[in-house]
Amino acid sequence: MKISRTNPGFSLIELMTVLLITGLLLTLAWPSYQSHVRRGHRVEAATALMEAQHFMERYYAVQGRYTTATGSAPALPVRLQTVPAQGTVRYRLKLEGVEAGKYTLHADPQDALAVDACGSLTLASTGAKGRTGSGLTVQQCWQ
């Protein structure tokens, strides 16, 4: 008895079925993945805001006020001006509303993150957390 050997491999229909299933899975998973990545970047920005808040509190402990002797805002350390400190900038940190007894820190999203639902993250000298966007709640943006 002679066994005929055929060319092993995939048929075009099998290949197209695999590509179709892969495409559907990718279509469903991509938005979730992007959301997860944006959330990770927001956590990184929130951490930098808290570090900047610690810097301001140390400054206040030494100077007795949040402003410089000329009444302007002190400069944040270079490592706290952008997130991340090196490489592609995703957030820029800045001080606003600086007075002798109060300030507000902002983390403004850059480039691709500019469309993030949370917008800019804010942290006041009182510890109040906020955001400028309207897509998510403050709690969702800061978790």
Short description:
With 143 residues, the chain is α+β, with helices and mostly antiparallel strands.
Can you walk me through this structure?
- The protein is of the alpha+beta class and 143 residues long.
- The chain has a single domain, classed as Glycoprotein, Type 4 Pilin.
- 40% of the residues lie in helices and 18% in strands.
- It is built from two helices and five strands.
- Strands 1-2-3-4-5 form a five-stranded antiparallel sheet.
- The longest helix has 52 residues, at 12-63.
- The chain is elongated, with a radius of gyration of 25 Å.
- The mean pLDDT is 88.
List keywords for this structure.
143 residues, alpha+beta, Glycoprotein, Type 4 Pilin, 5-stranded antiparallel β-sheet, 2 helices, 5 strands, elongated
Strand proportion, as a percent range, falls in: 15-25%
What's the number of structural domains? 1
What is the share of helical residues? 25-40%
From the helix content, strand content and strand pairing, which structural class follows?
Answer: alpha+beta
Mean pLDDT across every amino acid position: 88
> Which stretches are poorly predicted, pLDDT < 50 over at least 5 residues?
none
Broad CATH class: Alpha Beta
The largest pleated sheet is described as:
5 strands, antiparallel
Order of strands across the biggest sheet? 1-2-3-4-5
3D shape: elongated
Distance between the termini: 70 Å
- At the third CATH level, what is the topology name? Glycoprotein, Type 4 Pilin
Q: Which radius of gyration do the C-alpha atoms yield?
A: 25 Å
Taken in chain order, the helices and strands follow as: HEEEEEH
**Count of extended strands:** 5
CATH 2nd-level architecture: 2-Layer Sandwich
Contiguous helical run count: 2
